[in-house]
Design brief:
- With about 425 residues, the chain is α/β, with parallel strands linked by helices.
- It contains 15 helices and 17 strands.
- It has a seven-stranded mixed β-sheet, with helices on both faces. Strands 13-14-17-16 form a four-stranded antiparallel β-sheet, with helices on one face. It has a two-stranded antiparallel sheet with strand order 1-2.
- It is globular and about 75 Å long.
- The relative contact order is 0.17.
- Bound molecules: 4'-deoxy-4'-aminopyridoxal-5'-phosphate (PMP).
- 4'-deoxy-4'-aminopyridoxal-5'-phosphate binds near residues 105, 107 and 235.
- 4'-deoxy-4'-aminopyridoxal-5'-phosphate binds near residues 106 and 107.
């Protein structure tokens, strides 16, 4: 294609998209007789062979319960599981492996903080700030605490672009503000939030900050120490890993002071009916029961894979895809993009006059294109913008400019059919 290079193209570190695609068998699939165009990456990304092979390898060679075994398979499984802890530590640039707790994903990580830190530290009248951009998983746990403990949940507003209003944020703090719970990147609009600046402001007011990193970890390098996050949560299945494994980062001093949330095996030092039961040190205090061993090991493989490809290169490539998609769909009559923040990750949310989002998604699926429609677990945000659903296309390292063009053509065709 003969065109002048855009700013993004000039800056883009090389990404071997063809070589990346070859590692994702699912991308060879046909859907309704057409090549799959997978643009639902914000919901779940696809997994490369290295991750898929980890499961076969684990169950073929060293499947065993971890930590208490005195046999070779248990030792190997434990070593591989604990190796992922080190991988996550360095992926997030945490100071210490003990600051990484494995969870099922972001939702469970946030619920852990709400139920352990929240119940131990919050009382009636205390305040938690959440943003209007939050996924339900960073709203409902705090609402549950509000109904159980009498705390207040206050909402940081957004402007018409879907950018958080930092002046309003500052103004929400009172002497009762204990925690800010905010996402790093919005799944519904793609807005990248200034979480470092928000952490500074929270700390100035003596409050902690929990960052929901579910949508940031796939697209940009995350440094929990540079952000000065007190807690940081993410899910493996959005970062080229499996479902069922994610992590919570928490500053060591906070985790050490927090009570256990779930009780059971693995999380104790000693159990007695006569003297008080004692608990394991962090992070195992928060990992009751047999964890998702194979999934956690595969999560480590996924993070190494991402690092090998390079998050800067991935982020820059996705910015090109987003730029191309934004330009292409903007030409469609009656199409309105929701979320026009200057700093966005690869998420394109839109509604179309006279066409239901659900109809668009169903029909475009017939053309092999997978996008998501609905409220994206962000009902308050969508209600604020006067809609109940949007269509959302979201990009990953393996998507191509040709796919973006094919998507835009398919979208125009489908809108023509439903209008
Ligand atoms: N937060 C954000 C911003 C998300 O996009 C998602 C997943 N859509 C979650 C939290 C919840 O993640 P999970 O379902 O993996 O726990």
């Amino acid at each position: 294609m003969n065109h002048l290079a855009t700013e993004h193209e000039l800056d883009t570190p090389a990404l071997d998209v063809a070589g990346i695609r070859a590692q994702f068998p699912i991308l060879e699939r046909q859907v309704h007789g057409r090549p799959l165009i997978y643009f639902d990456n914000a919901a779940t990304s696809q997994t490369p062979l290295a991750v898929i092979d980890t499961f076969r390898d684990y169950y073929s060679r060293y499947n065993a319960n971890i930590h208490r075994g005195l046999h070779t398979l248990a030792d190997e499984a434990t070593a591989a599981y604990e190796a992922t802890r080190e991988t996550v530590r360095s992926f997030l640039n945490a100071a210490d492996r003990r600051e990484i707790v494995f969870t099922r994903g972001t939702t469970e990580a946030i619920n852990l903080v709400a139920n352990s830190w929240g119940r131990a530290n919050l009382e009636a009248g205390d305040e938690v700030l959440v943003s209007l951009l939050e996924h339900h998983s960073n709203i409902v746990p705090w609402q549950l605490l509000a109904s159980q403990l009498g705390i207040k949940v206050k909402v940081i507003p957004v402007d018409e672009r879907g950018v958080l209003d930092l002046d309003a944020y500052r103004a929400l703090f009172t002497e009762r503000t204990r925690l800010v719970a905010v996402n790093h990147v919005s799944n519904a609009f793609g807005t990248v939030n200034p979480v470092g600046e928000m952490a500074t402001i929270a700390h100035e007011h003596g409050a902690l900050i929990l960052v929901d990193g579910a949508q940031a970890t796939p697209h940009q390098t995350v440094d929990v120490r540079a952000i000065d996050a007190d807690f940081y949560a993410f899910s493996g299945h959005k970062v080229y890993g499996p479902t069922g494994a994610g992590a919570l980062y928490g500053k060591a001093a906070l985790l050490e002071a927090m009570p256990p949330w779930q009780g059971g095996g693995e999380m104790i030092k000693s159990v007695s009916f006569e003297v008080p039961t004692t608990f394991a040190d962090v992070p195992h205090k928060f990992e009751a029961g047999t964890p998702a061993i194979a999934e956690v090991i595969a999560l480590g493989v996924a993070l190494e894979w991402v690092r090998g490809v390079g998050l800067d290169a991935i982020g820059a490539w996705e910015a090109r895809l987003l730029e191309r998609a934004t330009a292409a769909v903007s030409r469609i009559d009656g199409l309105r993009i929701l979320g026009t923040a200057p700093h966005k990750a690869g998420v394109l949310s839109f509604v179309v006059d006279g066409a239901h989002s659900q109809d668009i998604a169903l029909l475009i699926d017939q053309l092999g294109v997978a996008i998501r429609t609905g409220n994206h677990c962000a009902q308050p945000l969508l209600a604020h913008f006067g809609v109940t659903a949007t269509c959302r296309a979201s990009f990953a390292a393996y998507n191509t400019l040709e796919e973006v063009d094919a998507f835009a053509d398919a979208l125009e065709r489908v809108i023509g059919m439903v209008r």
